[in-house]
Write a structure and sequence with these properties.
The protein is mainly beta and 201 residues long. The chain has one domain. Helices cover 3% and strands 45% of the residues. The protein has 1 helix and 14 strands, in the order ββββββββαββββββ. Strands 3, 4, 5, 7, 8, 11 and 12 form a 7-stranded antiparallel beta sheet that branches. Strands 6-14-13-9-10 form a 5-stranded mixed beta sheet, with no helix packed on it. The longest helix has 7 residues.
């Protein structure tokens, strides 16, 4: 299950990966006490290739997790991220509620609460973490600690196919202390946990 929880609201949506399903109810919304409740129906990874000098080439790729019909509808879908070996990308992540008119950009809420949120990007091969794809987060909070809405993704020349796991932690009752994944989870919620399949051209 994929969770997105912000200071002013709580979102809980079920997540189905390309190789696994989470059950019959693809999405749900939970409210933790009074306040506004929001639904997330789209999570998008967007990347643009960089040349050897680090300049943007205009060549882009993206992958989307989508549950556009919301809770009780069809199961969510997740696209495969098609990358190139030996290539570096600049990237971003976007979270939306597409059921609203106009569409509500939940990413902006996360950015506003950067001190309480932190993304992690982990490449897995056969269930094991691999450094064949490395992600450097480029944006920070008010303390200078990583946020991860924007990042640089580097693919090794011999990277195998696998999955890019995207995790968003919410430091609700704990303080962010470093850029490392915290070993102690007390006071920290896992708001987002998705693994995008990765293949190479």
């Amino acid at each position: 299950m994929l969770h997105v929880k912000l200071k002013s609201f709580v979102v809980i949506i079920a997540f189905a990966a390309a190789i696994a399903a989470c059950g019959d109810d693809p999405a749900s919304v939970d409210v933790d006490g009074p306040g506004e409740s929001e639904l997330i129906t789209s999570v998008t990874l967007s990347l643009e290739e960089l040349d050897d000098q680090g300049n943007a080439t205009g060549i882009t790729v993206s992958a989307v997790w989508d549950d556009s019909d919301g809770p009780g509808g069809s199961a969510p879908t997740i696209e495969t991220l098609q990358l190139k070996q030996g290539t570096t990308y600049q990237g971003s992540i976007e979270l939306l509620d597409t059921t609203k008119d106009p569409v509500e950009n939940i990413t902006e809420e996360i950015e506003e609460e950067a001190d309480e949120h932190q993304f992690f990007y982990i490449f897995n091969v056969d269930g094991n973490e691999s450094d064949a794809i490395q992600v450097a987060r480029n944006d920070t909070d008010s303390q200078g600690l990583a946020l991860g809405l924007n990042y640089t993704l580097s693919v090794s020349n011999d990277a195998p196919e696998g999955g890019l796991r995207v995790i968003l932690l919410h430091f609700e009752d704990a303080e962010k202390e470093s850029n490392d994944f915290p070993a102690e989870q007390t006071g920290i919620d896992t708001d987002v946990d998705i693994e995008f399949p990765v293949q190479f051209e």
